[in-house]
Amino acid sequence: xxxxxxxxxxxxxxxxxxxxxxxxxxxxxxxxxxxxxxxxxxxxxxxxxxxxxxxxxxxxxxxxxxxxxxxxxxxxxxxxxxxxxxxxxxxxxxxxxxxxxxxxxxxxxxxxxxxxxxxxxxxxxxxxxxxxxxxxxxxxxxxxxxxxxxxxxxxxxxxxxxxxxxxxxxxxxxxxxxxxxxxxxxxxxxxxxxxxxxxxxxxxxxxxxxxxxxxxxxxxxxxxxxxxxxxxxxxxxxxxxxxxxxxxxxxxxxxxxxxxxxxxxxxxxxxxxxxxxxxxxxxxxxxxxxxxxxxxxxxxxxxxxxxxxxxxxxxxxxxxxxxxxxxxxxxxxxxxxxxxxxxxxxxxxxxxxxxxxxxxxxxxxxxxxxxxxxxxxxxxxxxxxxx
Length: 387
What we know:
This protein has 387 residues and is α/β, with parallel strands linked by helices.
């Protein structure tokens, strides 16, 4: 174990990564009378009479809650709410840096779905949106669904939808480089948890042929004949893998054009050798990709990972700041499928004019991304609301 007193990671985290900053002057008695009593009472009464004023006259118009129960943190697993706090703080600073969205980390000391829904519902009036984070599957599906039904502010489980948005953006550009159409690709998704299921659904919504998608979980390929599937997996097993592929990752990858890894573990060269030539490998597990890029390049023309130290990083930070910025700006009450698809298109188009095999995904530091996503998301909401 490194010496924490000299370790730059621990030095950076000393005291946490967040602070509260005042946005109004508080230098004089007049300042105090406007910001607090007696002036604040007038604003309170106005909001009580017309709650639509809340986002205009409070921070809720620019603030989201980053909520976790610590059950599925990064690649660390169920480390609990206190262990999850550094990640939630990190998420909050990314919201601020890239989307100018204020975010508050909320780590809950419960992993019971009923309690999580109850607590978040009770806290919701303090925020303009809820970003669910690092909640394990399949509980995350129920929690998000129930909160989405209960609240009139956007609810977004980033591990599902942020991942799916960026994967779709990357696949759009990879397909252009490969001179292929999305509907022509045979795709294997390794991992059928929250991310894998959301990725699959979004790819199908974008035009991928559902029958040509094979999801693989720890027990093998999902297919209609399996009787051991949770409802979320069974739903996809009924429409994907119409060829009836059985077995594990080796069997599933035979003839595949694209591998999307969102599972962890290792996928060996034997399995990769069965892929169709000239395809794509997205090995997104962190910190260790399912396939090291040096190995992946022996089996695919296009390679991406989830890491920043390799080309083509597929990272959720390309999505969630802009998604929430756009949703808050539009005063959206939810985040729809069309908003997610619009976000993916916006990300892809940032670099569409200069695509290369080693650069078909925008950098996480590209300042063009969040504004483009925000504009696309807001436009999509307004288009749906009007329609």
